[in-house]
Amino acid sequence: MSALLRVEKMTHRFGGLRAVSDFNVEVPEGAIYGLIGPNGSGKTTTFNLITGIYVPSEGKVLFEGKEITGKKPFKIVQSGVARTFQNLRIFGSLSVLDNIKVAHHFRTKTGFFRSVLRTPGFKREEIAVREEAMSLLTLMRLEGRAKEQAKNLPYGELRRLEIARALATKPKLLLLDEPAAGMNPKEVHELMELIVRVRDEFKVTIFLIEHHMKVVKGICERVKVIDFGETIAEGNPDEVCRDPKVLEAYLGKRGA
Amino acid sequence: MTGFRIPKLTLSALALFAVVEGLARAGVLNGYIVHIVNLSLIYVILAVSLNLINGITGQFSLGHMGFAAVGAYVSGTVTSIVFKLQPDSTIGYAVFIAAIVLGGLAAAVVGFLIGFPSLRLKGDYLAIVTLGFGEIIRTILNNIPFVGGPRGLLGIPKFSNFGVILVATLLALIVIRNLIESSPGRAMLAIRENELAAELVGVDTTKYKVLAFMVGAFFAGVAGGLLAHLLQIAHPTQFGFMGSVLVLIMVYAGGVGSLTGSVIGAFALTFLSEGLRLVIDVVAETTKLPIGGEWRMVVYAVLLIVIMLYRTEGLMGTRESRIITLEEAGK
Amino acid sequence: MGTIFNVQQIINGLQVGSIYALIALGYTMVYGIVRLINFAHGDFFMLGAYAAYGAFFLFNASLAGLAGKGGAVAFLALVASMAVGASIALLSNRFAYRPLRYKPKLSSLITAIGVSMFLEYFLSALPIIGPSYRSFPEILPKTQIAIGTATISNYVVLDILVAAVLMIGLTLLVKWSALGKAMRAVSQDKDAARLMGIDVERVIAWTFAIGGAFAGAAGLLSGMTYPRIFPYMGIQPGLKAFIAAVLGGIGNIPGAVLGAYIMGLAETFASAYNSLLGEGIAFAILIVVLLVRPRGILGEKTADKI
């Protein structure tokens, strides 16, 4: 299996602070790859760099063999990379269904004139978008909430909505930023099953940031550990969790 | 599809036309009331076009009247020139319509020129820059002798009447509503809700912010042209910051994000304006105190502050009347 | 062209800049502490001018012992203008801005527009004040001073000096006093400051008061120097001072002063060259700054946590 995502020597500085230092990764196609590390270690910044929110000070990001470093985020998303956010970024006043429909927008051909004139092409596309969006909601067991305002949903359902919305962009690579945050054990278990199902049924490669060790050990095939922006370990979850450097990063120097 | 859908908005407009024209011809409604209705409709166009930018796409623009000025001056200049050359107005209406559309397009171009560099600024900064551009437009027009400079553009032929204005208002509402209730419209709403998230689901946020600006500017330009051909004058002071603030109050009072709200806000404030004018005149005469028109502005200022402190969502919030929206509840 | 940049114009530019500086400081301090562009700030300037006007008539008429003692009256007028500026600023903060402190910033911006509208139109609607110009009394006798090739009035010198004194006072306050430290803390991180035991709302109130007082003082100086006051006199200087604050870096106190003097000089030279250019240069500066370097000369890049 070839590397779907390759990051080479990526470094990023905010003023004098080096948030990410010489980050390298090869995420194979079809994998579930984990990125872990203590709080503030630079994980979300790494995701921001890959998705184009920041332009790396140094280094390259390659997706499907093509360089995407420095491209605008919406273009990166359109080429097949999607992500969710640590702090949910839902379109609160819009309905749950509309939240999903927005993610279909860039694949539609209806522009300003066809929308205003309500051509038959416009109407066909609206029906198609609606059907696709509803089927995605059904998969996420959110179809009953379709017409509700997104901000009224409970936390766990909002997390599922964000994942559904990211999937609606039909990505090949899905970056999940702490998808299990704030979930109870039952929800975590369901999430783990969901992620594996998404990978299998949608043929999406998963790159995820997580703190829940159960998730990491349960579904990640490979894991990379970073601290203060630097990579301190890499391997399969069991190896990494026994690595003394990793334990020191999380627990401090205690001869763990 | 389900077959013929009743065009509620068009029917409502026809009904309004029938009522107003009928009452006017029967002598029940005098010209003054019809004039106020005309003004209200023009402000409806201004309010919904501003709402598209501020309320739907979430970009705070404070120079909206600048676009109206462009429309007024361009269309007024065109008709003035054509009718100086060809006083016989058999093709009059066609030229007028063309001039209005031209004014709108000119305003849209200005909207693009201003929007494209400015729309990467956020919140406060965007507000200030749009205010600045609005003032620049006004200053430029004040200093061009060809269009009358500080005296303004005078002698514009009076082509605007209730029928034309009503049709223009109806078209503006239909176009903007159709835009909002479509995929591009959802993209704009997403930008308002969470611009970063919109970008990260593949929405070209710059493109849609500029589009909202241009469409909003187009209709503001149309409104400006209609106004110029109603009052027969286009003057820099009509299009200053306070004019933009007045439209802003209409949008917020009605409900920012609701087209219905903008319609209500525009009518309410225009009628309120005239009502206050009359009240002030009466009070000044009876009490013989030097009470001036500035009190109207004081009322607006207090209204704006009260709305922001106690009911930011205005009258309608983001809800739409079923006359305007195409979406059926629970679709 | 070289004749524009002479001593006369430079001094004029500094004088205009001094008035802008006093106003710009209020804008920048308030923005620094609550991230609000206080649209009404220019109107505190206007109210200061009217307060000074009122004070002059009050003291000149009633306290016969002060009649003719121009200096004392001028000083009292200055106190009055600063007090009124501060008071209106405090009232605006308390009743219009504080309720919206934790709501979206746009609401505060629109409310500030409303407050500005209210102050301007209320004053022009009041029969005793009215919308038209009023000439300002000559509180201090006007003399001419020669400096090199230039002849300037003592008012110009007064403007520059008073502004300088006030600005030095502010610098000392911000650098050395407990309030100054609290102000800096709150403008960096409101929540952390609160956790340190700082009464955030009191610090904000003090910031508004100081900013308003400075604007009021500028109103007195302006009234004296261009002896005309009217309810809309705050609009242009307010806008220009705001642009100056943005130029220097909004939220940055030395930046406001720097921006104000640059603005004053630029405007003076531009007007001498061509009056239309003079009218438009402020907006031109605004557009250039916002499109090229929005954070201004001394401003810092703000990073949003994503």
Summarize the structure in short.
Chain A contains ten helices and ten strands. Chain A has 256 residues and is an alpha/beta fold.
In order across it, which strands form the biggest sheet of chain C? 1-4
Helix content range of chain A: 25-40%
Q: Report the radius of gyration of chain A as a whole number of Å.
A: 19 Å
Oligomeric state of the chains in view: heterotrimer
Largest interface: B-C, 37 and 36 residues
For the secondary structure, the number of strands of chain C is 4
Low-pLDDT segments of chain A: none
In N-to-C order, the SSE pattern of chain C is: HHHHEEEHHHHEHHH
Strand content of chain C: under 5%
Structural class of chain C: mainly alpha
Overall radius of gyration of chain C: 19 Å
Folded structure, characterized:
The complex is a heterotrimer of chains A (256), B (331) and C (306). Chain A has 256 residues and is α/β, with parallel strands linked by helices. Chain A has 10 helices and 10 strands. The two termini of chain A are 37 Å apart. Chain B is mainly alpha-helical. With 306 residues, chain C is mainly alpha-helical. Chain C has one domain (15-232). Chain C has 11 helices and 4 strands, in the order H-H-H-H-E-E-E-H-H-H-H-E-H-H-H. Classes of the chains: A alpha/beta (256), B mainly alpha (331), C mainly alpha (306). At the A-C interface, loops of A face loops of C.
Show the helix and strand layout:
The complex is a heterotrimer of chains A (256), B (331) and C (306).
Chain A: E1 3-14, E2 17-28, E3 32-36, H1 43-50, E4 58-63, E5 66-67, H2 73-78, E6 81-83, H3 96-104, H4 112-117, H5 120-139, H6 155-167, E7 173-177, H7 185-202, E8 205-209, H8 213-219, E9 222-227, E10 230-235, H9 237-242, H10 244-251
Parallel strand pairs in A: 3-8, 3-9, 6-7, 7-8
Antiparallel strand pairs in A: 1-2, 1-4, 4-5, 9-10
Helix pairs in contact in A: 3-5, 3-6
Chain B: H1 8-25, H2 31-56, H3 64-85, H4 92-118, H5 123-142, E1 153-154, H6 162-180, H7 183-193, H8 195-199, H9 205-231, E2 233-234, H10 241-254, H11 259-287, H12 294-310
Antiparallel strand pairs in B: 1-2
Helix pairs in contact in B: 1-6, 2-6, 2-9, 2-10, 2-11, 3-4, 3-5, 3-9, 4-9, 6-9, 7-9, 10-11, 10-12
Chain C: H1 7-34, H2 41-62, H3 70-97, H4 105-125, E1 134-135, E2 144-147, E3 150-153, H5 154-176, H6 178-188, H7 190-195, H8 200-225, E4 228-229, H9 235-248, H10 253-273, H11 275-292
Antiparallel strand pairs in C: 1-4, 2-3
Helix pairs in contact in C: 1-5, 1-8, 1-9, 1-10, 2-3, 2-8, 2-9, 3-8, 5-6, 5-8, 6-8, 9-10, 9-11, 10-11
